[in-house]
Amino acid sequence: PSAPLLVTNSSSVTVLFNSTSHLSGRGLLLSYATSQHPGRRGAFPWDVRASPDPPLTLHFSVYCPAGCKDIHGDIWGNPSQGYRDTSVLCKAAVHAGVIADELGGQVTLSREKGITLYESAFANGLHSKRGSLSEKRLVFHKGIFFLFAMNLRHACDDVLEVAAFNASSWWHEVDVLGQYRAWVAERAALGTAGHSWAAEPGTEDSWLELDLGTRRNVTG
After folding, report:
1. Coiled-coil annotation: which residues (predicted)?
2. Going from the N-terminus, what domains does the chain have, and what CATH number goes with each?
3. What is the pLDDT along the chain (220 residues), one digit of tens a residue?
């Protein structure tokens, strides 16, 4: 369009999208900003900034509300490959482990060149689909790293990035102070502030899985 920026003083806008027939990937991207409440975040605001490394890669900051795990829509891909750009964004964020479904939160992602095939995976209570070639893909960035134990740091001075966390249980509680506490697998990441992950009381055969995204040789 000749005027892609729409400015309004109203607190709501209705967008009507007409499509003669349904095709995978057909849709629209809506982004907005507010000048009166710059500190507030809506359900899906996009803050776009250019990333200096690599050049021309755009990073987006998106706020996802709680409860996106059960919303309608599909996701294709996995945390290590990225997700087909037709995937439901916040649902994919839960699958990737960058947010807990019970809490929601801010996520950072980039829109990068697509790949030929997206492999399915089960993670964080969601099963993604196997997907075909797409022009673009969504890659989440969370900056969570898994470090070797201190006594191995000199022998193996390396850092492994964890692509995804998975666990036998995800649960939440309200502690004696009335504070909400989510026991999600991502809490097991080394360096995470606050409490770590623990299995739900009464759970048998508890386990924690770290997906490193690719084949690695780990000595321990």
Report:
1. none
2. 46-141 (2.170.130.20), 145-211 (no CATH)
3. 455 667 777 767 777 777 666 665 556 666 555 555 443 333 333 333 333 333 334 567 778 888 888 888 899 999 989 999 999 999 999 999 888 888 888 888 888 889 999 999 999 989 999 999 998 999 998 643 333 233 333 444 455 677 788 888 878 787 777 777 788 888 777 667 767 778 888 878 888 887 877 776 666 5
Tokens representing residue 173 in the block:
């509680």
Q: What is the largest CA-CA distance in the chain?
A: 63
Nearest to 128 by CA among 139, 118, 137, 136: 118
CA distance 178 to 51: 40
Q: Please state, as a whole number, how many other Cβ atoms lie within 10 Å of the Cβ of residue 81.
A: 19
How far is Cα 182 from Cα 67, in angstroms, rounded to an integer? 13
Please give the radius of gyration of the chain, using alpha carbons only, rounded to the nearest integer.
Answer: 20
Q: What is the distance between the alpha carbons of residues 97 and 128, in angstroms, rounded to a whole number?
A: 13
pTM of the complete model: 0.45
Residue with tokens 């982004």: 31
